[in-house]
Design goal:
The two termini are 29 Å apart. With 490 residues, the chain is of the alpha+beta class. It is globular. A hairpin with a 2-residue loop joins β14 and β15. α5 crosses α6. It has three domains: 274 residues, Immunoglobulins (Immunoglobulin-like, Sandwich), CATH 2.60.40; 99 residues; 93 residues, no CATH class. The strands form six sheets. Strands 12, 13, 14, 15, 17 and 20 form a six-stranded antiparallel sheet that branches. Strands 1-2-3-4-9 form a five-stranded antiparallel sheet, with no helix packed on it. A five-stranded mixed sheet has the order 16-22-21-18-19, with no helix packed on it.
Amino acid sequence: MKKLFFLTLGLILSIGINITNGKNLQAYLSTTTFYSPTDGPYIETYMSVFGNSIIFTKKDNGKFQGTIEVIMIFRKDKKIEDFAKYELLSPEVDDTTNINFNFIDQQRFALSNGTYEFELIISDKNKKDKPFNIIEPIIINYPQDKISVSGIELIESYTKTSNPNILTKSGYDFIPYITNFYPENINKLIFYSEVYNTENVFGENHKFIISYFIQSFETSKKLPDFFKIKRENTKPVNIIFNEFDISKLPSGNYQLVIEVRDKENNIVAFNKLFFQRSNPNIQFNISDITALSVENSFASKITSKDTLKEYIRSLCPISSQIERTYASKQLMRSDLQTMQQYFLNFWLSRDNTNPEQAWLNYLIEVNKVNAAYKTPVKKGYDTDRGRVYLKYGPPNIITESYNEPSAYPYEIWHYYTLDDGQRNKKFVFYTLDIVTNDFVLLHSDAFGELSNYRWQVDLHRRDFDPSNLDITRPPDAWGNKANDYYNIPR
């Protein structure tokens, strides 16, 4: 499950805990922040536990029930600001041979603006294994003198409220959609958000614009079929509750974007939420490129099919999923003109004003990674380090550690800010054999990247191979510096 760790955008955690009898406690946790004009900021947590991943025990009434213990702690400057410890009970069932449901929990915490350390501890009460815990940063920022957009809550279903409860907002009871992955069988993306301070900033009875749309995560290009706009009058809180039909949205990585614009069409506030879509029946639309003329374009100057194939392969790190699939499975068998049309269209979609210069700038970076990260069997752009470099640019800090006593050689790349606004993101690469120069991605906390909460254990498997998958850190040993380097890059 992909992590989304900007709290004002929404937080997605994927938690898997191995149970010694072969059953895995599996749960999804997401959070979203909001602001109440009367009570201030607050954060909501939404947890979904897979029923078939827990142990059910028989109750006095003859039915079976599972119990999860949950601890949530919010620290600010090392001080606990709020916490909750509670037992989450599953529905009672008559038979445990076919558990095919998830059960959901929602909590709400009032927290002031600031940066927090959020710790989650979760365990199956019917097992004696060590609880699983994870710590992640949270940022809450709702200024009093500026317009801001709340977190974006994804909705599975909703009903009109009859009796107000913790699921209630704006007259509806919302069942949260807790992951950020939409499989082929789900064709609606329903979302809820709020806009604050428009009345204070714009003035009473002032009109402004709220737009919401889906854009490509790789290119930030707006998708024309997934764009909506509405005119609003200023209020203490403006509600955004809408949905997109995503039945024709191709597989790929996307962002749901909400923008607030003033009457001069200037963006005054926005928010984004990363999500992934799997929709294999929707293919690349070849008609988008077949009508494109390449005459007198820079693409027409590339007349060697082999050269053009190599150039197209090098685009993989910055391509969308549907572009990668089309290029690898169909385009390489096409004629030269079709490949030229694809290549030109690719760069026009990235830079409509000067696509050739965009390509030449990218080619410089490709040559850099081919020189730095190539292996005996791979071009540099085909390696994990090359892909990350081309996709996100050069990191601000690279920590290299090739000779720790118990760890495989590794590198930790730290980015202060990524182009899509993510902050303080890290990538851990390691290799079993430094001679090959093939460092593979072991863990990252960036959207859409491999997330491995046991990365430190895997990094130290050279002389440590635990059978208990609940362990997330190797034993302390002389010379182990990975956790220190990860937390304090240098």
